[in-house]
Amino acid sequence: AAEPLVLGIETSCDETGIGIVRGRTLLANAVASSMDEHARFGGVVPEVAARAHLEALRPTIERAVADAGIRLEELDAVAVTSGPGLAGALMVGVAAAKALALSLGTPLYAVNHLVGHVGADLLQGEGLRPASGRHGAISTVGELELPTVALLVSGGHTSLLLVRDLIGDVELLGETIDDAAGEAFDKVARLLGLPYPGGPHIDRVAADGDPDAIRFPRGLTRPADLERHRYDFSFSGLKTSVARWVEKRRDAGEEVPVADVAAGFREAVADVLIGKAVAACRDLGVPRLLLGGGVVANARVRELAEQRAADEGIALRIPPLSLCTDNGAMIASLGAQLVAAGRPPSGLDFGADSTLPV
Ligand code: KG4
Ligand code: ZN
């Protein structure tokens, strides 16, 4: 059978993503972001994100269709993120997907956002291999081998998955019990007077700091915590610890060594993220680790992942950054897998589920 032509719609957070794939081939990946609109609030405002999706969906679909050089009538299926994410934002995408599928008479597939991040790794296309991006190539060459551990880290989620089968056997090993790692980056950046989103700014400033000058706490890594939360994360204590450290200096009228604070904070986050992911690989006897989500842009996270993966004989995969941040192509990719496997479509009765399990 011919490879299915699938359009994917992603609206779980602040990116309106429309992707078009033919099987594993990426044809278009159009993304509109409402990030700038959230900047003055220091974080994503759900209501603002939902409205922005409503406005961006049509032009973004048109752009993707033009980029792919297809007609909507040719689509074999539509896929959409039904969760997890912001309820209102998800609803806009789900409603749009239903309308599109209904008007075209094509099957509709509901897809899990987190599993979508893993599906991004399947995609091939011009300029995608080897992995491009600011920090050079970390290979995502060749087939994705399963099972794999997947660490997904963004402003909205921090999850560790065990993926045995992309479309049917994905297990949540752990997740953040409070803030997402990207959220922690954004909050600490704000504290240090850096712009939103803070991740890239902390990363830049930290490059001039000493990561060992200040040791900030690693959440949920004490033996007592590991028993219950071996693969879970916590970043709110770290954020508070950074805030206290900075306030103490400010109150004393001392200058805050911003670069050292940023470096120490970044080190603490990277250490826990990669430490727990590598521990999962070791514990489960799965020598494969896939990274996804916007925080994967972080230079220290990438560096530590490379080092520890090499030390432990773990094959590391990092898709290009354009496929790590939220996008519609990863949703289309999973949709294409579902079509190719002959899975029945989801119908038109499903809703958005902000806490959808994997
Ligand atoms: O995947 P993404 O674009 O989606 C959302 O969560 O919306 O991730 C954005 C998050 C933000 O919190 C941002 O601060 C963080 O990823 N981020 C970074 C870096 N680049 C983006 N965090 C740390 N270091 C970076 N270089
Ligand atoms: Zn995401």
TrEMBL record:
Positions that bind substrate: L152, V153, S154, G155, G156, D186, G199, D203, N298
EC annotation from Swiss-Prot or TrEMBL: 2.3.1.234
Subcellular location: Cytoplasm
Coiled-coil stretches noted in the UniProt entry, renumbered to this chain: none
InterPro entries (alphabetical): ATPase_NBD, Gcp-like_dom, KAE1/TsaD, Peptidase_M22_CS, TsaD
Catalytic activity reported: L-threonylcarbamoyladenylate + adenosine(37) in tRNA = N(6)-L-threonylcarbamoyladenosine(37) in tRNA + AMP + H(+)
GO CC, alphabetical: cytoplasm
Gene Ontology molecular functions: iron ion binding; tRNA N(6)-L-threonylcarbamoyladenine synthase activity
Highest taxon, organism lineage: Bacteria
Functional note: Required for the formation of a threonylcarbamoyl group on adenosine at position 37 (t(6)A37) in tRNAs that read codons beginning with adenine. Is involved in the transfer of the threonylcarbamoyl moiety of threonylcarbamoyl-AMP (TC-AMP) to the N6 group of A37, together with TsaE and TsaB. TsaD likely plays a direct catalytic role in this reaction.
The protein's name in its UniProt record: tRNA N6-adenosine threonylcarbamoyltransferase
Organism expressing this protein natively: Leucobacter chromiisoli
Lineage of the organism: Bacteria, Bacillati, Actinomycetota, Actinomycetes, Micrococcales
